[in-house]
Every structure is written in structure tokens, then in C-alpha cells.
């Protein structure tokens, strides 16, 4: 089905063509007619399948057909990065429409956001925390709001935004169209949608726990003390063109980036200790190829929309299966192909088994060709030095052997030793 058949106006259709879209994705084909018809909707689809366009295009189409009267659309998203990503997409689609868009999120000055809210821009895209702060200052007027979107809704609720979301929605007009989109949606969180929606239609593309089929998944079994060396070894490969590396901790991300820079691999970092300008710079450098590797914490798992990511590397195996799905969804987007590589230590075996049950299949184990698994483990460090270099062992038991190979390391990976 071509986009023209979905009933979008000529201005929107022109912008879609210029954005390089030819045919709608399955989630767009299923969701757009329902939204155009005015229904509340729950949209569930794998990461990278075009959910943003699925809610943006029909809302813009309906807004174009009605007179302007202050802020009519509010989009809530869990992270600053996702807010920026959505704003970029909305601005591209609305380039031929007389509509204004503003973003609201923390880490930057409030004044431009306050001015935008008070001016009554047509579309506001916000994180719940900062928006609630500004609403408390009576800076926003949502009396004419018609459309509310909760994007990555499960993530927002998992991050503890439910109280803020309830307060925000409590201040919105009861008569509105509410759309909820997510890559995964637990039954517990789905039950909460009854608070926010009225008889929503449900559009589900694929299994809830299923990563994108275009992503090839591998597991590399490796002792903790060899993970940095293995990452450098893999990044020497000619196919590792644009690589997103996930670390469990901010300190770990910085440590990985320093090691890669020492190896001559241009690297940027993205985590919550970085300023907003630093985070935007890291994404920009990654997108334009100034750096080949971006090392990030899970803050980036739902907020990065970068074309051409060839590999996602789970340097630290995710503690929750849902996070794995979102992480690897950063590659293989919009039907493109990509590889997802996960480093698994002996301490990660239980999480790996849980993940394989969650996605309903096993993940291929690989051994890195040409890598010396027989490297002697470093001598265990004193506790103080280990805590400075290896992070908090109380919070992340998986990291307690960072200073040297554990007994499980030697037993599980002994077959690689000479």
C-alpha cells in the first residue's frame, strides 16, 4: 500500500516523499487509518519499525484540517534524546504546514521553553519531569489540547514517571484522543492504560518480545578481564563501521571509551553525567561519522534514531530482557540489516537463559577468530583500587571479578587456554 492510499493531505504526502519514504511500514499501515478515524490507540511494534511516523502523520493531517487555537498536541517521551528525535521527525513531516513545534526537557535553560509554552505552540514534545515543573509555574495552557501521545510508554512507567504522568494528564481536557506507543508492553502496564484511554484500538505488529528480524544476534563468551581486549579486537574488523556499545554504568562507559581512544578508535560517550550539549555533540559526531563508536548507558536505548548503525555491542549484558530488545533495536531499523553482539561472562549465564526464554529462541554462540583467549588474567587488585576501576560490586554483582578471572571463568573458558 502506498502512502497516498492512507488518506494523507498533499502537503504531508510531499514531505513524506522528500523524506525518502516509499511505502508505509506495517505499524503505519495499521495505525494511521485508526488514528485518522479518531480512535484512541495502543500501538505495539518492534523498535525501528516507524512508530513515530505512525502517530505523527495522522495527527498532523487532522491538525491541518482544523483551525489553529493554541497547543493542540502533547507528546510525552522518557528521555531528552527521544524528545529531540521526535521533534526532528515532526519538523520534517510538517515542513509544508503552518505549525509550530517546541521541545521541553531538562538539562538546558528554562526560558526558551517557558516562552514557547506561553506562546501556545501547536505541538509540544516533552519529558514528564521538566514539563510538570513548568506546569507548576503556570507556564502552559493545555485547555485546547486535542491529542496526547505517550511514546515508549512502558519505559516511562518503568522509570518511575507514572505519578508525573498522572498529574499532567489530570490537567488536560478529558475530551481528547490519546495514543500509546511502545515496543513492548507488559500486561501490568497495559492495565494502566484504562486510566488514560477510552476504548482504545490495539495494533500489534509481531510478538511483543521479538527483536527485529533483520538483526543477526551473537553471543561471545568471554571472561570479565578480557572484555576490553575482545572489544578492541572486534572493532579492528572491516565490517564494524558504525558501532553502538552499551555499558551498564556511567563510569564503565567512560572507562571503555578511554580504552578505545588509547587503541586509536575514535569514540564518544553518552550518559546522564554528560551535559545536554555534550550529549547532543556526541550524537552529532556519531551520526556524521566523526566518531565510529558511541559508548552509552541504557539512557540511549530508546532515544537513538541513527541510520546506518552496523553493530550494537552489549559490552555489559543487560539485566532485563526488555532492555536487550530495545538496545539491539538501534540497528536493523526500517528493514535495514545489522548485527547485535553480546559479551557474556559466567556471571551472566542466568540472564542469558532468561533472555532466550523471553524472545523464544536461542542465540548463536561465537568465538572471535584470531583472539587470544589464553591471555593470563591480571593479578587481583586491592579492594580500594578495584572499587575505583571496576565500579560498585554491591550494586552490580556481575562486575565483582573485574580485577581478575574467577573460578567460574577458568572452568567455563578453560577450553580456550593453551
Instruction: Name the overall outline.
Output: globular
Number of strands: 14
For the record, the count of structural domains works out to 2
Question: CATH superfamily of the largest domain, please?
Answer: P-loop containing nucleotide triphosphate hydrolases
**Major sheet strand order:** 3-4-2-5-6-1-7
CATH topology of the largest domain: Rossmann fold
Task: State the major sheet.
Answer: 7 strands, parallel
Tally of contiguous helical segments:
16
Low-confidence stretches: 381-418
Q: What value does the Rg take, in angstroms?
A: 23 Å
Percent of residues in helices comes to 25-40%
Explain this structure to me?
This protein is of the alpha/beta class. The protein has two domains: 3-205, Rossmann fold (3-Layer(aba) Sandwich), CATH 3.40.50; 215-416, Rossmann fold (3-Layer(aba) Sandwich). It has 16 helices and 14 strands. It has helices at 10-18, 26-36, 51-64, 80-93, 111-119, 128-136, 153-158, 162-170, 187-196, 227-235, 250-262, 276-287, 321-328, 349-359, 383-390, 407-413; strands at residues 41-45, 73-76, 101-104, 123-126, 147-151, 177-182, 201-205, 215-221, 243-246, 267-270, 293-296, 311-314, 338-344, 364-366. It has a seven-stranded parallel beta sheet with strand order 3-4-2-5-6-1-7, sandwiched between helices. Helix 12 links the parallel strand 10 (267-270) and strand 11 (293-296). Helix 2 (26-36) runs parallel beside helix 3 (51-64) and helix 6 (128-136) crosses helix 8 (162-170). It starts with 9 loop residues before the first helix and ends in a 5-residue tail after the last helix.
Amino acid at each position: 500500500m502506498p502512502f497516498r492510499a492512507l488518506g494523507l493531505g498533499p502537503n504531508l504526502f510531499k514531505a513524506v516523499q522528500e523524506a525518502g519514504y516509499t511505502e508505509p511500514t506495517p505499524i503505519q499501515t495499521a495505525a494511521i487509518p485508526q488514528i485518522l478515524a479518531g480512535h484512541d490507540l495502543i500501538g505495539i511494534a518492534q523498535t525501528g519499525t516507524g512508530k513515530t511516523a505512525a502517530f505523527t502523520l495522522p495527527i498532523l493531517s487532522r491538525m491541518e484540517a482544523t483551525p489553529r487555537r493554541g497547543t493542540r498536541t502533547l507528546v510525552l517521551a522518557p528521555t531528552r534524546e527521544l524528545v529531540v528525535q521526535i521533534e526532528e521527525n515532526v519538523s520534517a513531516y510538517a515542513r509544508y504546514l503552518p505549525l509550530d513545534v517546541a521541545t521541553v526537557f531538562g538539562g538546558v535553560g528554562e526560558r526558551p521553553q517557558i516562552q514557547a509554552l506561553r506562546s501556545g505552540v501547536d505541538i509540544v514534545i516533552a519529558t514528564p519531569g521538566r514539563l510538570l515543573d513548568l506546569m507548576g509555574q503556570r507556564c502552559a495552557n493545555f485547555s485546547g489540547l486535542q491529542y496526547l501521545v505517550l511514546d515508549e510508554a512502558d519505559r516511562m512507567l518503568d522509570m518511575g514517571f507514572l505519578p508525573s504522568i498522572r498529574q499532567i494528564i489530570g490537567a488536560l481536557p478529558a475530551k481528547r484522543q490519546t495514543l500509546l506507543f511502545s515496543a513492548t508492553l507488559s500486561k501490568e502496564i497495559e492495565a494502566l492504560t484504562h486510566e488514560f484511554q477510552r476504548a482504545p484500538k490495539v495494533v500489534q505488529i509481531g510478538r511483543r518480545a521479538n527483536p527485529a528480524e533483520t538483526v543477526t544476534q551473537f553471543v561471545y563468551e568471554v571472561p570479565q578481564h578480557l572484555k576490553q581486549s575482545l572489544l578492541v579486537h572486534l572493532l579492528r574488523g572491516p565490517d564494524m563501521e558504525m558501532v553502538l556499545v552499551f555499558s551498564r554504568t556511567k563510569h564503565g562507559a567512560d572507562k571503555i571509551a578511554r580504552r578505545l581512544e588509547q587503541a586509536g578508535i575514535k569514540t564518544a560517550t553518552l550518559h546522564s553525567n554528560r551535559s545536554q550539549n555534550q550529549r547532543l555533540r556526541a550524537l552529532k559526531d556519531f551520526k556524521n561519522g566523526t566518531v565510529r563508536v558511541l559508548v552509552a548507558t541504557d539512557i540511549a536505548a530508546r532515544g537513538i534514531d541513527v541510520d546506518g548503525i552496523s553493530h550494537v555491542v552489549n559490552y555489559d549484558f543487560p539485566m532485563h530482557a526488555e532492555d536487550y530488545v530495545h538496545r539491539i533495536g538501534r540497528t536493523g531499523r526500517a528493514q535495514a540489516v545489522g548485527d547485535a553482539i553480546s559479551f557474556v561472562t559466567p556471571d551472566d549465564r542466568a540472564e542469558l537463559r532468561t533472555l532466550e526464554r523471553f524472545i523464544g529462541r536461542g542465540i548463536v554462540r561465537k568465538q572471535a577468530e584470531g583472539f587470544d583467549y589464553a591471555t593470563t588474567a591480571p593479578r587481583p587488585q586491592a579492594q580500594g583500587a578495584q572499587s575505583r576501576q571496576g565500579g560498585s560490586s554491591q550494586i552490580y554483582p556481575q562486575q565483582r571479578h573485574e580485577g581478575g578471572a574467577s573460578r567460574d571463568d577458568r572452568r567455563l573458558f578453560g577450553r580456550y587456554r593453551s
